[in-house]
Specification:
The structure holds two protein chains of two kinds. Chain A is α+β, with helices and mostly antiparallel strands. Chain A contains 13 helices and 22 strands. In chain A, 28% of the residues lie in helices and 24% in strands. Classes of the chains: A alpha+beta, B alpha/beta.
Chain lengths: 441, 227
Amino acid sequence: MTDLSGWGRYPRVSGPLGHVADMAAAAEATSRMRGGVARGLGRSYGDAAIGRETTLAATGLDRMRSFDPVTGLLHVEAGVSLAEIIATFLPRGYFPPVVPGTRFVTVGGMIASDVHGKNQHNDGTFGDHVEWLALARPDGTRLRCSPGENPDLFRATIGGMGLTGVILEAAFRLKPVESGWIRQTTHVARNLSEAIALLRKTGGATYTVAWIDVLARGAALGRSLILEGEHAPADALSPRQDRFPAGGSGRLGVPIDMPGWLLNKRSVAAFNALYYRRGVRAARAPALVPWDAYFFPLDGILNWNRIYGARGFVQHQCVIPDAAAEAVLSDILDRLSARGEGSFLAVLKRLAPASGLMSFPMEGMTLALDLPVSEHRLSLLAEIDALVAGAGGRIYLAKDACQSRETLHAGYPDIDRFREIRRETGNATRMASKLSERLGL
Amino acid sequence: MTGADAPKRALVIGGTSDIGRAIAAAYLDLGWSVTITGRDMEAVERELRDLATRHDGATVETRHLDILETASFDGFVDGLPGRVDTAICVVGMLGDQERAQTDADHATQVMRTNYEGPALLSETLAARMAEDGGGLIVGISSVAGDRGRATNYVYGAAKAGFTAHLSGLRNRFAATALRVTTVKPGFVRTRMTADMDLPGPLTATPAEVARRVVALERRPADVIHVL
């Protein structure tokens, strides 16, 4: 028995964790599943990668299969991590088409969560770049899926939270880049409407994200720093700059659980105000930032999830359709700032529709928060969920630990089709996670 | 291409093990060409593809070799594509000590995999490499061979035999250009030890073993311990 939890360390469940060494063993283990799910590096936040009965560790499927330097097509086993892909191919001038906020995720996990990055409004989700994948299913079969081959199962698997089978391998295209640096431009938004207007500006940068000061109130409610980024061309670098810098080692760890009280209203407010002022000073002058600091700022601190103390934390990410975005986001920010519920990481971003049946992105604005776990915070999140559902928005399953079935149903119109495909392929009961149990997926 | 310009070649016996895989990658990082061997060609092919994908422009070859088929060793060595500069024998099998106490077939398999096969193969390789002008033979043995422990003495005794064989080989070729190094890892986190409760800070990774092995190319040693 192994203690299993997501990155938020809430909830925690003890259960059997099986390891497999290769794809044949993974397919065999899948055929014996009676209520299980695959787990990669465990970076989904809540209960998505914990099997109802058993959990299958897919990290042994970590071999690369082939790479075509002309097309950029990379074929890998599903347990290969994004960190390894970047370490291997960035020095050769290639970068993944989409990266989430951490590089310690597997390809299988990125497909199952259909992760998005700071370029989702331009380039879509990770799933949009998958040319094909192979799925092991509980009936013992192995099936190749792509937009043209078993397309229904493909659309159900992209963003399907691992509930359509165990992803064994996949192929997707890397994109050529001239350097490992990002040219970052900071814009200041004094309030929420300015932030939304800046994020919606058309013809904007490849990468755009806003860091939002959740504790600012009144006229400054929703004040933000909008960070735009472009891959820097080689000639933008100074001769002293390494064209493809190696990423940081992530050795600066948080060795123990910090006491929960360290994160109080005052410390978070001070941090946020400082960060905002620093951003205002930096605004407009573009800066060159190495890829790891730009895309994965928290990867530099191992176990950063421990700063939230032993009780863990919940990350909450919602998306609100454009029409209601400003009104609903103000309401959410009002409730957070009124109760002093600041978050170190509050991120605002524009999203475009995605193609998976259960993919999170839709046309609108997304807000991501994290909050240490406590009773009153869980009730605050329930209030926020009601606002999101009322506006036709949805909650990201990869980060979710507590939404209700009603909220899920309201937010994901293709859920019935997803369940039907699970039933048709005979894995509605055999592929099951704590998340699918909680939400009746 | 003249001999002096051609990349050096490493031969990794047991290239599908976690340590073998890490050693093959470390030699490719040095710019060497690498030949990996294994018993299950599908597994060998998987490692070949992984190594070739990760290392731009790398030359990796595969050969079939079953360490229990000792009669095949002469043919295997004759069939090698050219000069081998360094041969690393990573083959090993922990086995199940309790089973080995009552199941003679199992005990025999542990003995043959850890001692008979590696010893006979290193003998054949040494003859060929000495003839080709020398090189380096690295045998991955174990601290388990230093003294018999109740929990793993069948494995340990076989490793002790391999350790003694390597030191004899080293002495025999001492006056030539052929060097022989014995590597004695303690605990290494691999598939072989996946079910064991390992002492965290005293446990090496396959990559650490590999770093120590390739370091022998710069700084020769008779015996090295890895943790």
